């Protein structure tokens, strides 16, 4: 989940515990800022911490346990920008920090996904407002052992996860998988209903399915049901 706030963390706390059947990784963002929350029905272990000292709550990592071994999940919420020098510098500094931190995709099973606020270099249509450093981050992932899961399955599709007021479409949201997972991408699609029907968000959802069996899910504990008393003999 991207674009989360401090209030999001407060609301999530009753359900964000193993006894409720969910594990949560969520560094609470600074006041007035937005961040990333990872919610899992599978047990999670702490991933190697990212050394993103700048806006750390926008790059959240966790490791999900699967029957094929651990899979690292890195959720990103890249800052958006306007034409002001401060916003441009902010976004570039964050992306530069990611490139200095994210390990090469040959190292382990890893998924890097979220709202990147960037486009692929050959995005259709082409928008002149995007700068080389923004396209550069997409290309950097491909050059360092990561694969665009959606493009792997849908190489020529025009699909947009955000649509502006002038009806211009942008594929801002991405899911990249590392080399060891590249052959295990079973499905990757955009879920448009949250944007077009329920209006829960101005972004479409992104669903990624890997052909990897999960570990045993967390057990849901219902606090309204009392456990059966033990019988002693």
Assembly state of the chains shown = single chain
Rg over CA atoms: 19 Å
Describe the largest sheet.
6 strands, mixed
How is the largest sheet built, in terms of strand order? 5-6-7-8-12-9
- Average predicted confidence as pLDDT: 88
The secondary-structure element order is EHEEEEEEHEHEHEEEEHE
Low-confidence region ranges: none
Strand content: 25-35%
Would you report the number of β strands? 14
Q: Helicity, in percent? A: 10-25%
SSE inventory with pairings:
Layout: E1 2-4, H1 6-12, E2 23-25, E3 35-36, E4 38-40, E5 44-45, E6 59-66, E7 69-77, H2 85-101, E8 110-115, H3 132-143, E9 146-148, H4 149-153, E10 162-163, E11 169-170, E12 173-178, E13 185-191, H5 193-196, E14 205-210
Helix pairs in contact: 2-3
List keywords for this structure.
globular; six-stranded mixed β-sheet; 5 helices; alpha+beta; 233 residues
3D structure, described in words:
The protein has 233 residues and is an alpha+beta fold. 19% of the residues lie in helices and 27% in strands. The protein is built from five helices and 14 strands. The protein has helices at 6-12, 85-101, 132-143, 149-153, 193-196; strands at residues 2-4, 23-25, 35-36, 38-40, 44-45, 59-66, 69-77, 110-115, 146-148, 162-163, 169-170, 173-178, 185-191, 205-210. The strands form five sheets. Strands 5-6-7-8-12-9 form a six-stranded mixed β-sheet. Strands 1-3 form a two-stranded antiparallel ribbon. A hairpin with a 2-residue loop joins β6 (59-66) and β7 (69-77). α2 (85-101) packs parallel to α3 (132-143). The longest helix is centred in the middle third of the chain and has 17 residues, at 85-101. It is globular. The N and C termini lie far apart (50 Å). The model has no long low-confidence stretch (mean pLDDT 88).
């Amino acid at each position: 989940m991207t674009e989360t706030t401090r209030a999001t963390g407060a609301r999530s706390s009753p359900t964000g515990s193993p006894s409720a059947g969910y594990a949560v990784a969520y560094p609470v963002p600074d006041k007035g800022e937005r961040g990333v929350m990872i919610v899992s029905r599978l047990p999670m272990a702490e991933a190697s911490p990212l050394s993103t000292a700048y806006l750390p709550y926008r790059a959240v990592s966790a490791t999900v346990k699967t029957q094929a071994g651990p899979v690292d999940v890195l959720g990103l919420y890249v800052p958006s920008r306007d034409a002001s020098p401060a916003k441009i510098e902010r976004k570039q500094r964050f992306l530069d920090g990611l490139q200095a931190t994210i390990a090469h995709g040959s190292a382990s099973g890893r998924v890097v996904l979220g709202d990147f606020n960037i486009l692929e270099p050959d995005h259709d249509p082409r928008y002149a407002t995007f700068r080389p450093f923004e396209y550069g981050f997409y290309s950097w992932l491909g050059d360092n052992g990561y694969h665009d899961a959606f493009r792997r399955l849908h190489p020529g599709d025009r699909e947009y996860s955000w649509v502006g007021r002038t009806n211009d479409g942008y594929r801002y949201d991405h899911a990249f998988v590392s080399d060891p997972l590249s052959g295990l991408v079973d499905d990757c699609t955009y879920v448009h209903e949250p944007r077009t029907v329920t209006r829960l968000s101005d972004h479409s959802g992104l669903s990624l399915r890997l052909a990897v069996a999960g570990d045993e899910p967390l057990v849901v504990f219902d606090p309204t049901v009392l456990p059966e008393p033990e019988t002693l003999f």
